[in-house]
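Quick question: what would this complex look like in 3D?
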Amino acid sequence: MTGQVRTVDGRVAGRRGQATRQKLLDCLSEMLSSSPYRDVKVIDVARKAGTSPATFYQYFPDVEGAVLEIAEQMAAEGAELTGLVQGRSWVGKAGWQTAQELVDGFLEFWRKNDAILRVVDLGAAEGDKRFYKLRMKILNSVNNSLSDAVAELQSKGKVDKDVNPAAVAGALVAMLAAVASHQKGFQTWGVKQAELKPNLALLVHLGITGKKPTK
Amino acid sequence: MTGQVRTVDGRVAGRRGQATRQKLLDCLSEMLSSSPYRDVKVIDVARKAGTSPATFYQYFPDVEGAVLEIAEQMAAEGAELTGLVQGRSWVGKAGWQTAQELVDGFLEFWRKNDAILRVVDLGAAEGDKRFYKLRMKILNSVNNSLSDAVAELQSKGKVDKDVNPAAVAGALVAMLAAVASHQKGFQTWGVKQAELKPNLALLVHLGITGKKPTK
DNA sequence: ACTTGTCCTGTCATGCCGTCAGCTTACCGA
DNA sequence: TCGGTAAGCTGACGGCATGACAGGACAAGT
């Protein structure tokens, strides 16, 4: 996809250049998880990476640009999420297992990348098409698979005709993402992490199949 | 609660002062819906309000402080959400109606205040306790009512014992909030606003009662 | 050693931040 | 009517981030 890494002014980046570029990305990523997005300054990132602001601007047009880059890398890894739903059964005990593993994998992925995902979410909500497309890219694999699962059950007459597979799948994915973002919120609400998961799995199972799971 | 409105340096604000203060809040609010949170500058808000940056800092410690103020006002209005669930029935056709009206009211409220809610969400996700408490305050009314509903059905033996009411309620509320934030996202996903609502209502009904609604 | 192209940084103009002293305005009691 | 007092506002300033540029350092090939 990305044939060559290029600097802002069009030069092709070599070995060393790519290294510092990556270092800047790493430092920015770290910065995002330790301080509010709004307060992340180019100069801090540069200092942390042992270089100067000017260098940063050689590789990225601005902070947002760099964030998009990080998010892009993450989206690529996010493809692993597909495996959580693709080709799985939603019937009987296997269905319950599928729901559980989906929830587990999803929360884990989100927790691992929470800082960057927050920013992507904000960008998307603010209407920025780039972030918005990126968010789709990440969620699409899961969403499409879920949507297919609903559609298939529907064709077999196991799910009502007036259910919109895409809407249900989208809502469930949004739920998982939101809960993952606010995991800490649930704790103070008196819900422990361990308790949360099975209840989420239950909701997912109910949403997809319309039935309570057989455990 | 707030006995007197005070400036940062401790003076009590009079008629005129409160007016400019409110004007600044209004302008900030408008600013937030038209440009990314990260790019909202004090000087722009001040200019828009026909005053100077120094005046802004007389009433608010920083942009964040002003945002919290706006959010607080909104949270007060958010109490109206309570009416969407409190004392409603979740049985039979009435249950379906309850679910529909909840979804409707929730989406409407979110759409009306989306700009500020985005920022609150971000702040909460970033771990800022003030935003986080505020988010709770807004969602608590709905969340508690839903939680109670589940607990009640549970005591009647209509819902499984191993369901955690708070977890389910929290997840459903998070889902509604997330879907509301990304309503545009669903459109490009091929799901129309009108189609989305009943499917959300279905999920809510399933989650609360464990059964398909009778329409 | 020399050349070439990559890579980094010092420096600078610009603009926003956040603060302060000081000016203007409104209110109030004598 | 006339100060006196507190509220209300702003010009100006040091400080820092931004973003652009030109030039120096460096690695690799010849």
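Answer marked as accepted. The mean pLDDT of chain A is 90.
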